[in-house]
Amino acid sequence: MCDDIYRSAISPEMWETLPGRLAAVAGGGSWALQLVRPGTPWRSAVHGVGFDPDLLALYPDRYAAQNPWLSGLMRMPALQLIRDSQILDPEELLQSEFYADFLRPQGDIHRACGMVLLRGECGGLIASCNYAPRHAESIGAAAGRILAMVGPHLRRAFELTQLFERNIICASARIMDGTAGPHACLALDSRSRLVACDTRGEALLSAGKALRLGRDRRLRFLDDAANAALDAGLGLGGHAGHGFVVPDGPAGRMLARLAPLPRPRAIAPIEIALAPERAVAALILTTPSRGGGMADEDLQALFDLTPAESMVLRQLCAGLSTSEVAALRGVSQNTVRNQICSLFDKTGTRRQAELVALVARLGT
């Protein structure tokens, strides 16, 4: 059982099977992992087995707020096994809406044991088991022993999941150090806090001419427009769709682009608990090639263009029409129109005039 728990640290999707494995060891019961959000009324994200699927689907938005068990449990120290009889008046529970609407229809599963595994920015992560009174000596007793034994391991597995993801990002940053090109890579969470960066990123932060770290490790540009573009892109999970320009000193500039970072999916309680420290996007900063204008490779890096798209962009900026671009390249006008549509999508523009004006502002 403990081996399976620690495998969840390497493969976060394995958290999905955890309640079912706990139920199998205990011989039954309705098991759940839930993240209880801060504030009142209670809100939660839950994943469980042994519950009615329709009622469980309504639990986060309806029944969590009615659950008297949460109020007492959330006041208890982490990793302490708590039984319902320690914090609930049985008569009050049996007269509650939560009992009538959620527990009784599922076989009178109003007995429970559980523990707070950890507390964090997003709330408390709880593991629990519900069972009927007639199963108190069998499933109830076994569930208590199991939670007391595996609770510390569940907490450590979650901490290792966080560490494992952070180490992957740091290893990727070290790989970036070995690549050629004037690029810096910084991995950021949804609040623009730095998770990892390569040596070029460290050099930019040390120089402090274009970007700095705040006390909470939040990355901030010295330019307000660049900060607005960064925050908007991170709000979309790094799927910003186009790049932006960052002033670098009195006369310099850098090209910035966000790329979303893939990650394994876990069940909702784990996903939400991981979110505050999870890198969601890589910020790629490129120093433009020196010379009379922005090089094709800079345009391609800034907007994620193909060589053919950057060529079309150049020709449009030179004043050529769609038919002239098609004739010059020896392709159909439909091909050019499709490439122009792709340029609109990648640069966040809607018309050729906007596209040309955007490139002009970049100094090409």
TrEMBL record:
The lineage of its organism: Bacteria, Pseudomonadati, Pseudomonadota, Alphaproteobacteria, Rhodobacterales. It comes from the Bacteria. Residues 298-363 form the HTH luxR-type domain. GO terms for biological process: regulation of DNA-templated transcription. The keyword Transcription regulation applies. Pfam families: GerE. Keywords: DNA-binding, Transcription, Transcription regulation. InterPro entries: Sig_transdc_resp-reg_C-effctor (IPR016032), Tscrpt_reg_LuxR_C (IPR000792), WH-like_DNA-bd_sf (IPR036388). This is Helix-turn-helix transcriptional regulator. The keyword Iron-sulfur does not apply. One of its GO terms (molecular function) is DNA binding.
